[in-house]
Amino acid sequence: MKHTKLIVIAICSLGVLSASAKKDTDFVKQYADSLNAFKAQQETQDAPETPLSAYSSYQLFAPATFYHSVASSQLASNGNADGEVNAALMSAYLNHPDLIENSENELKKAGEVGEEINQPLRQEVSFVERTDVAPQESTDAPVDVVVEKPKFWTYKGDYYLQFLQNYISGNWYKGGESNYSMVGSATLEANYDNKGKWKWDNKLEMKLGFQTSRADSIHNLKASEDLLRLTSKVGLQATKNWYYTLNVLAYTQFMRGYKNNDVFTYSDFMSPFNLNISLGMDYTVSWFNKKLTGNIQLSPIAYNFRYVDRLALSKKNSIEEGKHTLHDIGSMFTIDLLWKFTDNISWKTRMYGFTTYSRSELEWENEFTFKFNKYISSKLFIYPRFDDATTRDGHHGYWQFKEYFSLGFNYSF
User: Is the bond preceding residue 272 a cis peptide, omega within 30 degrees?
Assistant: First the structure.
C-alpha cells in the first residue's frame, strides 16, 4: 500500500532526526508510537485505498504546522490514532515551538494536500477568420538586376526673340547703325562630367538681328546683330576648383555687314573667321551662395588663327594685304559669369582678351535680363570692344561700342 510505504519512509527519516536530537527522546518516542499505531490501523483495514488527506495522520508528514483543533481534540481524546497524532503534535507545540513554520489558516489558503481538480480546464478559442495556407514560394526564383548607366551628359538651352532699340558707334568694326530692330538668339550647351577628373564643356551661340533704316536708300534690310560662336573646353581636375584646360574658340557670322548708303561689304560669313586654341588653367566660380557662378580661364599659351575669304577685308582685319590668313602666338584670358541678383533679375557677362604683346584685343559683353514671367523678359545689352590693330578713330580711338535695349519672348530649359 502507498500509505504503508510513506509511513516506513517517515520512520526512517525519524531515525535520522532522533540521532541528531538526543535531547528530544520523549517527543521522538511519542511520534514513533503514533506512526506505528497508524501503520497497524492501515494494515487491518479492508476498505479501498483513500487519499492521505482523508486522515488526520497526514499532518505528521506535512511541514510543521500549528493546527487550532489539536488542543480541543486532545481534551476529548479516546486513544485512537487521531488522538495519538494530536498528542504528538501537541507535544511538539509545547516543547519545540521554534520548529513550527506554518499555521492552519495558511494551509487552508493553500488548499489540501490531496485536493484534486474534478473538471478539466478548457480555454475557449474563437477563429476570427479562416484563411488558406499561403503557398510556399520558391527560394531559387530568378532575380532581375537592373544597372542604370550613369548620366555623364547634361544639356541646356536658352532662346529668345526680342524687339530692341540699338546704338552702334560710327566706327564699329562690323558696320551697322543705331536704330530700332529685332533680334533672335539661341544658346545650346552639351556638357560632360564623369564625376571624377574629367570635364568637357561645349557651347554653341547663335544670334541674328535685322534692322531697317529710312536713311538707307540702298539696303532695305541689314544685319544689326550677327554671331556664330562655338566654345569647346576639356578640363582635367587639378584641385577642388582648378582644372588644367585645353580650350578651342571659333567664331564668325551668318550674313554680310553694311553701312548706310554704302555698297561696300564690311564683313561676311568666314570674313573674318577666328580660331583660338589655348592651354592653361580654369577656375570654377561658385560665390555668394551659388548666386554668382561661372569660370575664369587663364591661358599663358594661346594660338590664334584668323582667316578672311574676301581679300578686300584683309587689311581691315589686321591681315597683310593680299593674304587670307594670320597666325599669332600670345596669351589669352576669358571670364564667363552669371550673377542672379533675384529670381527675375540677372547679369550675364563675358570678357575675352588676347594679346601678342604687339597688339591686343579686348571684348566685354554684358547682358542684363529682367524677367516679367516665364516667357516675357526685357534685356539690356552693353558691348564695349578694344582693338589697337584697327584704324584709330578720331572720336573713340581704338574703342568700339555697341548697345541695345529690347523687350520680347524668352524660353529656357
Answer: yes
Mean pLDDT of 386-413: 86
Question: What is the distance between the alpha carbons of residues 66 and 102, in angstroms, rounded to a whole number?
Answer: 6
Within 50-109, strands assigned E span: 65-66, 102-103
In this prediction, residue 93 carries a pLDDT of: 73
Task: Find the angle CA(107)-CA(5)-CA(23) to the nearest 5 degrees.
Answer: 70
Cβ proximity of 117 and 80 under 8 Å: no
Is residue 244 within 8 Å of residue 281, measured between CB atoms?
yes
Region 80-94: what's the mean pLDDT? 69
The contacts of residue 365 (CB under 8 Å, 6+ apart) are: 349, 350, 351, 381, 383
Q: State the Cα–Cα distance between residues 119 and 6, nearest whole angstrom.
A: 28
DSSP result, 326-390? EEEEEEEEEEEEEEESSSSEEEEEEEEEEE-SS-EEEEEEEEEEEESSSSEEEEEEEEEEEETTS
Q: Are the beta carbons of 407 and 154 closer than 8 angstroms?
A: no
DSSP secondary structure letter of residue 23:
G
d(CA 262, CA 176): 11
Q: How far is CA 4 from CA 40, 62, 127, 202, 301, in A?
A: 9, 16, 51, 110, 120
Q: Which residues of 16-48 are buried (b: 16+ CB within 10 A; e: fewer)?
A: eebeeeeebeebbebbbebbebbbeebeeeeee
Single-letter amino acid code for the residue at 207? K
Measuring CA to CA, which residue among 208, 238, 206, 242 is closest to residue 224?
Answer: 208
139-169 residue pLDDT tens: 666 777 877 777 899 999 999 898 866 677 7
What is the residue-wise DSSP string for 248-299?
A: EEEEE-SS-B--TT-----BBTTBTEEEEEEEEEEEEEEETTTTEEEEEEEE
Taking 80 as the threshold, does the pLDDT of residue 323 lie above it? yes
Nearest 5°: phi and psi at 62?
A: -80, 165
Asked if 308 and 353 count as a contact pair (C-beta separation under 8 A), the reply is no
Residue with the bigger pLDDT between 309 and 68: it is 309
What the block records as the C-alpha cell of 279 is: 592651354
- Give long-range contacts, CB 8 A cutoff, 24+ apart: 366-370: 369/345, 369/410, 370/344, 370/345
Q: Which three cell numbers stand for residue 93?
A: 507545540
